[in-house]
Amino acid sequence: MASETATVVAAAEAVVPEQTQTKKKLHGRAFYESIGSPKHIVAPMVDQSEFAWRMLSRSFLSPSERSSLLAYSPMFHARLFATDQKYRDSHFQPTRSPLGKEQPKKPSSEPAPSSRDDTPYLDGNPAIDRPLFVQFCANDPASLLAAAQLVAPHCDAVDLNLGCPQGIARKGHYGAFLQEDQALIHEMVRTLHEGLPVPVTAKIRILDTREATLAYARNVLSAGASILTVHGRRREQKGHMTGVADWGYIRYLRDNLPPETVIFANGNILQHGDVERCLEATGADGVMSAEGNLSDPGVFAEPPAPGEEGREYWRGRDGRGGWRVDAVMRRYLDILHKYVLHQDPPARRPLFLPGDDEAWIGEQAAAEAEADAEEPARKKRKKDGGGGGKEGRPTSPNLIAVQPHLFHMLRHFVSRHTDVRDALAKARMGDLANYERILAMVERRVAEGLLEYERTDGASFEADATNTAFEAKAKQAEEAKEKQQPAGGGEGAEEDEAESSAGTIRRCKRPWWVAQPIVRPLPKEAVAKGALQLSKKEKMKLEEEQNARRKVDDIVAQPQKTGGEKVEGAAELEKTTSYPVSELVAG
C-alpha cells in the first residue's frame, strides 16, 4: 500500500504545471471575502455541474453579478483523477492541452520545443468560470492530495465530499460513509490544508444529534477547512426518504461555532424566495442549491419586475411565474455551440408571445409530421448500416450531460408532451443538431400553451390534466385543512406544511411551460402510497416522531395556566422535540 501511494504522489508531482506566480494563500473568512463573499452557490453534482451548466446558471444574472455566483465542479474520484489520463480528459478541461499530460522527451542535446497549449480553456477559466471549487471524493490522503495538486492552478479551492449518500459511495467507502471515521476525515483535510497552494473546503451531512454534528464540524474545521457546507439531511435521507432538510441544525452550528466560521447551507431550495428564507433561518453565509438548480438554473436570479418580463420570463394572472423552458433550453444550447463546439449558434426567431405572427406554428407542426412519417425509413437505414457502437461518441463532459439535464429540466413538460420525451430518449449523445430539432418541438408546444392560456383566461392551467392523482389528493387535503383552520391560518399552519407536501406542491406548481422544482412526497406519504417500504427500525422512528407531535398537540390544546406559565410537561417537550424550521420538501 505504501509503495502504491508513493507511486500515485510521484506521478502527480511529475505533471503538475509550474505556477507562474506565487499568490498568498488565504484562509477562512479572509479567503471567502477575497472571492467576493458569494451568497449563491451551485452545488457539486455527479456529472451534472459541468462547465456548460455552470455557465447557464450564471447567465441569468447580470454581467456584473456573474462572478458573485460560486460554482462547484462535479464530484471527481480522486484516485482515478490522479492516475488515469483518460478519466481526467473526460471530466476536466482547464487548458487546450490535456491536463497533466507530459510531452514525450526526445534524446537531443537541445531541449525540444513544447507543444503544450496551457491557454485557459473551459473549466476554471479566470475570465468566465470563477469562482470555482473543484470537489473530490476520496478515502486516501495521498491520492486526494495528488489529484488536488493537478487542479489547484485552475480553481479557487478544493472541496472534499463527505456528503454523498448513494450506494456507490457506500461500496467505495467515501462521501457520507466516512463520517464514522473522524480520524481519517481529519487527516485528509489536514493533508490538503498543508499541501495545497489553495484553500480546502468540505461538505458534510448532519448526524443524528446536533451535538454530534457540532463535534463533526469542529473536527473538519480544526483540520484546516476554510469553508464548511452543511446539508441539513442525514445520510439515509435519499430517494423516497429524502424528506425535509433540517435548517435548525445549521442554525445550531452557526450559533455554536466561532463567528468567523464561513458556513454554506444546503437543502430545501426549491424557488428563488427560498434563498433568503434559508439565509435568515440558518444564519449561513451562503446558500447552495442542487436539485433546485437542476430544475431551474435561474433559481438564483431575481425575477424581473411586473411588466418587465420580456420574452424569457412568464408571469400568470395570479402574479406567479418563472423562466420559460424554451428560453432556458435555448440559452443552454447556445452555450454549447459557442464554448464547446466553437461555432455560432443558429439564427433564431424571437421567442413567441401571444400577438406575434403564428404562421410558423403550423409550419413547425407540418415539419414534425413529415419527420414522423420518415422515421421507419431512418430506422431501417440505421439497422442496415449497423449500430455506431462506442466509436465516435463525444468525450466532452459538457456534451455527455445534455440529455440528463434536459430530462430533469423538462420533467413537467414531458409528462404532458410524451412525443418530446420520446425524442429526448432517442437523442444521440453529442448530436446538437438533433437537440435543435427537439428545441423546435418545445418552442411550438410552449407557443400553443401560451395561446391556450390566453384564450381560456388562465383556466387551461387550472384544469391541467398533468396534475397527478397524488397532487390532486394533496390539494384536497390542503383545502380540507384550510376549512378547519381559523381565519389567518394560525400558528400551526407552518407545522402543517412540514407534515404534508400539499402546501409545497401548491406553492411551487406552475404551468408546464415554466421551469419548476420536482417536489417529492414526504416519506410517510410515500409509505401511504405504497411507494416505500420501511424497515422495522424506520417504522419505530417514524412512530416515535408522530407520538411526540401528538403529545405537543395535546399540550397546546390544554388551557394555559395563569401568569404566562406553561402547562406541565410543555417545557420538557420543548427540549426534546425537534421542529423543522422549513416546510420545504426537496432541493
TrEMBL record:
Presence of keyword Lyase: no
Coiled coil: none
Family annotation (PROSITE patterns): UPF0034
Residue spans of biased composition, Basic and acidic residues class: 472-484, 538-554, 563-575
Region (Disordered): 90-122, 290-315, 365-398, 472-504, 538-587
Top-level taxon in the UniProt lineage: Eukaryota
One biological process term in Gene Ontology: mRNA processing
Record key words, sorted: Flavoprotein, FMN, mRNA processing, NAD, NADP, Oxidoreductase, tRNA processing
SUPFAM superfamilies found in the cross-reference section: FMN-linked oxidoreductases
Catalytic activity, EC: 1.3.1.88
A GO term, aspect molecular function: tRNA dihydrouridine synthase activity
Cofactor(s), names only, from the UniProt record: FMN
Gene3D superfamilies for this protein: Aldolase class I
Ranges of residues in domain DUS-like FMN-binding: 42-302
Family, similarity comment: Belongs to the Dus family. Dus1 subfamily.
Function, as annotated: Catalyzes the synthesis of dihydrouridine, a modified base found in the D-loop of most tRNAs. Specifically modifies U47 in cytoplasmic tRNAs. Catalyzes the synthesis of dihydrouridine in some mRNAs, thereby affecting their translation.
Record-given protein name: tRNA-dihydrouridine(16/17) synthase [NAD(P)(+)]
Organism: Pleurostoma richardsiae
